[in-house]
Design brief:
Blueprint (H helix, E strand, L loop, with lengths): L8 E2 L2 E2 L4 E5 L5 H9 L4 E4 L3 H12 L1 H4 L4 H12 L12 H6 L16 E4 L8 H7 L4 E6 L2 H9 L2 H4 L26 H6 L2 H22 L5 E5 H6 L1 H12 L19 H4 L2 H10 L1 H6 L4
Parallel strand pairs: 3-5, 3-6, 4-5, 6-7
Antiparallel strand pairs: 1-2
Protein name: Sulfotransferase
Pfam family, one: Sulfotransfer_3
InterPro entries: P-loop_NTPase
């Protein structure tokens, strides 16, 4: 017999069909999170410290995520992040505060107007199975972007590069390691010696493989897949698809005029050697996704 669905109440509102935006790094999760955050009735968090710590713990040690208590831990930390209380937004990241248009101490939303909750924090993708256990009625929106453009952005981001220090794949690391894209312990030395562009490509490859698994396993009413490139070229159509999927009105304005690199700028931003390495590491996934 299936256990009863957990009833979570936040700010006096029952959490129903929460929305989670998932993607590889620099693939547009924050862009869609911004659009959702500025939509009536939505309260979307992005990278709150306590949530990020749990997400990264699950990502780096998948065995923790498979424990029986993982869904409760994730549900509780998200419930706390969604609370609308004085000063709560002071704990948010700069990206989250900017997306919510925070001036001063906030908050970014009024509790009386809320009907939907969600999160678009970095690397939430690696917690997707736990999210679905914690919230069986969750709606996931995953975003796919050309891995070469992703790598170009990752190489310019010190936060992303910090994950590639040798100790991140130490003796206590678990394998396979989807977070760093390493399949087995015997590949540890090869990973350590690999240039940063190759490590970024492995992270992207691991992320899109997880996304492909979700697409195979989840029914259409629980998962929507968008392309980053379509969000930039046809924002109205992209938001229409999101609105239909969530059965709610989503703001399109946040997608217009976003200062984002145009698709294909990796040709100027990656050195020939880095571009060749990325295409070697991620050739199969780039081809499967139609990025020629």
């Amino acid at each position: 017999m299936r256990p009863p669905t957990h009833i979570l109440v936040v700010n006096g509102v029952k959490v129903r069909r929460p929305v989670f935006v998932i993607a590889a790094p620099h693939s547009g999760a924050d862009l869609l999170g911004r659009a959702l955050k500025r939509s009536p009735g939505f309260h979307i968090t992005m990278g709150r410290g306590p949530v990020a710590r749990v997400v990264y713990a699950f990502a780096r040690r998948p065995s923790i995520a498979r424990s029986g208590g993982a869904p409760r831990v994730l549900r509780d930390v998200l419930a706390e992040a969604w609370q609308i209380v004085p000063g709560a937004c002071a704990e948010c990241t700069t990206a989250c505060r900017e997306a919510g248009g925070i001036v001063g101490s906030g908050p970014c939303a009024g509790p009386g107007a809320l009907s939907r909750f969600g999160d678009a924090g970095p690397d939430l993708l690696y917690s997707a199975p736990v999210l679905l256990q914690a919230f069986p009625d969750a709606r996931l929106i995953q975003i796919i972007r050309d891995g070469r453009d992703v790598v170009a952005d990752m190489l310019a981001d010190p936060t992303c590069l910090a994950w590639f220090k040798p100790h991140m794949l130490g003796e206590d690391a678990e394998f396979p390691n989807p977070f760093l894209g390493v399949r087995a312990a015997e590949h540890r030395e090869r990973w350590t010696a690999m240039p940063a562009a190759g490590k970024c490509a492995l992270r992207w490859r691991g992320a899109v493989r997880l996304s492909a698994t979700l697409r195979r396993e989840l029914p259409a009413e629980h998962l929507l897949t968008l392309r980053y490139e379509d969000m930039l070229s046809s924002p109205g159509e992209a938001i229409d698809a999101v609105s239909a999927f969530l059965e709610a009105k989503v703001s399109t304005i946040a997608l217009y005029g976003a200062p984002r690199p145009a698709p294909g700028t990796w040709r100027k931003r990656l050195s020939p050697a880095d571009a060749e390495l990325v295409e070697k590491v991620a050739r199969e996934e780039l081809r499967r996704l139609g990025y020629r």
